[in-house]
Amino acid sequence: MMSANEAALGRLQELVVVLSEDMEQGLAALGLTRSRAHVLWELHRCGPVTQRTLSDALRVTPRNVTGLVDALVDGGFVSREPHPTDRRATLITLTGSGAETAAAMAAGQRDLADQLFGSLPPGGVEEFTATLDHLLAQIRSQQGAGGAQR
Amino acid sequence: MMSANEAALGRLQELVVVLSEDMEQGLAALGLTRSRAHVLWELHRCGPVTQRTLSDALRVTPRNVTGLVDALVDGGFVSREPHPTDRRATLITLTGSGAETAAAMAAGQRDLADQLFGSLPPGGVEEFTATLDHLLAQIRSQQGAGGAQR
DNA sequence: TATTGTTATACTCTATAACTATA
DNA sequence: TATAGTTATAGAGTATAACAATA
Predict the structure, then answer these.
(1) Structural domain containing residue B70
(2) Domain tally for chain B?
(3) Nearest to A8 by CA among B9, B115, B64, B148
């Protein structure tokens, strides 16, 4: 038998799958993969930064950043500019097209949020957010103690 | 500015990241990747099946299934058994060790669900599940109309 | 000596296309 | 002729290790 807790977790996973597919599809329409979009998003948030900074922010290796940036340069989304004071480093900078794409991602995010939560009853979003906060605290407090599946 | 809807979506994404990391870590401890665990899970649910069936269930190509099953055979989790009536097909079957691992995944899932939802107030899980159902219906009803980011 | 980014190499997941053995 | 699974090839994301240029 399945407990109510298991049912909830299953439903949550189902939502994640559907949302992920939706997002991936939207990104593909913009010519992006998930990882490359993540880089673009970071640049959108934090302006031109070094690859080292991206490596830390995305928590992937510097080598990996090289590959992602290569692809984004090929796609015309970003350019490598010289660092003004450190000749070892490069400043990854959004091109005009890259900035437009990032703006489209932000708009898509807003639309998705409204589409998802717009029809909840008054106070529903706030309550849902509060529950998510509780779940986040739960999982973070006991982090390190096992966990598995799918 | 960020709307309440955007904040909720952001929080949901945060939860997804933390949950994913937790699961991936648990699976790694069992010697599994996400994709291989998915195969094991399907076998746990549906008994010995052909690779073709797995291909349909996981929605990946037959070629991909070959690779995943190869890895699971190497790890001692499953074996390829002859199909009783169709000599083209193989029945992918859990080994003793594979069945134990699948049981461990199921147990981990139960533990995680209890850890997450166990401390919600009475009726809280049911309400949360109802909201998730609503969100799922929302996203499914409007599927096909754009969406992006991360 | 430490840091930035690269080349070299490798593993996993994924896909398409061509092919073999069987239905 | 169609289906089950494989080999061949390719691309994306990830990692470690060794190395160059610069701090």
Answers:
(1) 20-141
(2) 1
(3) B115
